[in-house]
Design a protein that fits this description.
two-stranded antiparallel sheet; 261 residues; orotate phosphoribosyltransferase activity; EC 2.4.2.10; transferase; pyrimidine biosynthesis; glycosyltransferase; single chain; binds 6-AZA uridine 5'-monophosphate
């Protein structure tokens, strides 16, 4: 397993990424992933300092940023280490193994160098995971991915049992690299795979472009979520820090009650 060296009480210990994620959640009492869908990386950096103590993960779409630079993304990575949250690049890879390998490591973004986790469609078959896992071995830090099993949008073609079954099989086969799912229901009985659920909002039921929302409690209880992925509910609120804290508290309370952890 790839490992990360973390200084704890002057002892350097190695922690694989799945375990690190679970430790972060417990230590910070947070199952909140902020989906920082902003187009300015400077603004994301400032926001990450504001909500850093409330979140277990920060999710970005680097290809919507107008001011991306490797220097700035390094700053964000440093903040993620300081506040102890993971960085997820929501790249939604969907191509053949060789192409995703290049998309993951090359180009302007060099995602593998800074993203702890990436999201992956399994549409091309298991070769996509093989390509990414191979590429991740070029980096001396733990890397992992979340397989997109189900989507939150209306009419998603992932609403197909055979497809979802295939995704779960793929996760089991590559469980060193695949640490969980983007999902809308509980897909496995073990706690091995983290279920990350987008489409969470306390005040809205959807947007104008097919997004569908449930509340944090519904996401955990009815949709099987471990991690709540929350974007505009926090980003569009008047006080982002306060709203993030509310989602953290409500989310973790429901998580403890329902998952009995
Ligand atoms: N996302 C979904 N649904 C999925 C997968 N991913 O909404 O099935 C992502 C979107 C966005 C975030 O790309 O970044 O989660 C949700 O944002 P919102 O809370 O503002 O709707």
């Amino acid at each position: 397993l790839p490992t990360l060296n973390i200084e704890i009480e002057n002892k350097t210990i190695s922690i694989p990424i799945r375990q690190r994620f679970q430790t972060i959640m417990k230590e910070k009492r947070s199952n909140l992933c902020l989906s920082a869908d902003l187009t300015n990386l400077d603004e994301i950096i400032e926001l990450s300092k504001l909500v850093g103590s409330n979140i277990c993960m920060l999710k970005i779409h680097s290809d919507i940023l107008t001011d991306f630079s490797l220097d700035k993304i390094q700053q964000l990575k440093d903040i993620s280490r300081k506040f102890n949250f993971l960085l997820l690049e929501d790249r939604k890879f969907a191509d053949i193994g060789n192409t995703v390998k290049l998309q993951y490591t090359k180009g302007l973004f060099r995602i593998v160098e800074w993203a702890d986790l990436v999201t992956v469609h399994v549409l091309p078959g298991e070769c996509i995971v093989q390509g990414l896992e191979q590429a991740a071995q070029s980096i001396n830090e733990p890397r992992g991915c979340l397989l997109i099993a189900q989507m939150s949008s209306k009419g998603a073609f992932t609403d197909n049992d055979d497809y979802v079954k295939g995704v779960v099989e793929c996760a089991k086969k590559y469980s060193d690299f695949v640490i969980g799912f983007i999902s809308q229901s509980r897909l496995t009985t073990t706690d091995k795979f983290l279920h990350c659920t987008p489409g969470v909002h306390l005040n809205n039921t959807g947007d104008q472009l097919g997004q569908q929302y449930v509340t944090p409690r519904q996401a955990i209880d009815e949709r099987g979520a471990d991690i709540l992925i929350v974007g505009r509910a926090i980003l569009d609120s008047i006080n982002r820090a306060k709203t993030a804290e509310e989602y953290q508290q409500q989310g973790y309370q429901a998580y403890e009650e329902i998952r009995k952890i």
